[in-house]
Each structure stands twice: as C-alpha cells, then as structure tokens.
Amino acid sequence: MMKKLDNNQISRIKKITKEIIGWIICIVIAVILALLIKYFVLTPTVVKQESMYPTLEENQRLILSRLGRTFKQLPKRGDIITFEAPTVTYRTEEDTDISNPVAIYEEEDRNILENFSYNVLEIGKTSYIKRVIGLPGDHVQIKNGKVYVNDEELEENYLQSGIVTDDAEGIFSDIIVPENTVFAMGDNRNSSVDCRAFGCIPLERIEGKVLIRFWPLNEFGKVKK
Fold this sequence. Notes:
Layout: H1 7-40, E1 42-46, E2 61-65, H2 67-70, E3 80-84, H3 112-120, E4 127-134, E5 139-143, E6 146-149, E7 152-153, E8 174-176, E9 181-185, H4 195-198, E10 201-202, E11 206-215, E12 221-222
Antiparallel strand pairs: 1-2, 2-11, 3-4, 3-11, 4-9, 5-6, 5-8, 6-7, 9-10, 11-12
C-alpha cells in the first residue's frame, strides 16, 4: 500500500514541477528566438567552396546578414552573397531563352515540417557564395578575359593577379540583368560555377550578405569588396 504524501512533500513536488515547467518554457522561447534571429537577422556560416579564393578560403567562418531577405532588398554591386543553388547548374543554348537569363528553380512538394527543415534549419539545402557583379537593368558582358558593365570595364581589385574571366564558362556572357535578380560570380573565376553557367539569381533565392569574417581570428573583420 502506497504511503500518503504529507503537505510538505506535496508542496515540494509542486515547486519542482513548477521550476521544470518554467525551464522548459525558457528553453522553448530561447530556441524560437534563436531561429527567428537566424532566419530574419543574422546567422553564422562556413565557407565550403574555393570559388571565392583568395577573398575567402574554405573553412573560414562568416556572419551573414539576413536583413536584405527580410525586407526584400537587393544587394549592392560588390556585395558577397549566399543563395540557394539553382536546380539546373549548367544551361545550354538549346534549352534556354537567352532573353530571359534567370536561373531555374524547380519547386519540390514538401509538407510543413519538410519546408521548415529545408528553409529554416537549411537541412539538405545547397547554397553558393558569390560576388554581385550586375544589378537589374545592367548590361553585363564578358569578353577578352574581362568584365564590362554598361560598356565600362569593371575594376576588380579583389581578383588574384593573372586571373581572367572566361566567357566559355557558360552561355550567359552578354545579357541584360532582369528585374529583381542579380548576376554574381566567384572571385576564383576558373574554379567557379556561377551565373555565367546558370543565369541570374532571383531576389527570393538570396539568403544573406556577408558582414564579417570571424574565423580565423587573425583575419577577423570585414571582407574586402
């Protein structure tokens, strides 16, 4: 036969239960706030590609601003951005309307949990990191190993000495950037799959803009434009 609890024991159990519930509520609130900050304000990321060398190297750690996505603002020329990788990475003249040079994104059927996992937690999502070269309405041309925007050669002091921009890397080497999209390329032009190959990136696919590099510590600070 179970022993009946006295008033002190009942009071102690109630107090412990209340504390546990309080901690659970605090943890849930903290997780929600962290997810909101990650999605709408700031988030850390790790460089996993060599396409931005020498500006960025693999395994360096960065802080991204999400505010551009939150307020639906396009980045500026020279900004380094991350964006969702297009569904079709390499386009051909046969399957492309060159007058509409926008990257292809095929929507997948996902339930609410899968959408949350993919878009908020970013599990299973592939992202690219590149530098913005062309903005809506810009005439971007790649010729003779150089980049021209609106018929003026673009100064690219961030490129490694001797690097040329090859127009053979894709079919989008002479285009007008459509509205609400950007044309972006990696600084390591010979090892970058970018808008030359798959087209311009829509605003809604841009995930963040690089604010600072925080690792390694000896390179802490803003990333040069």
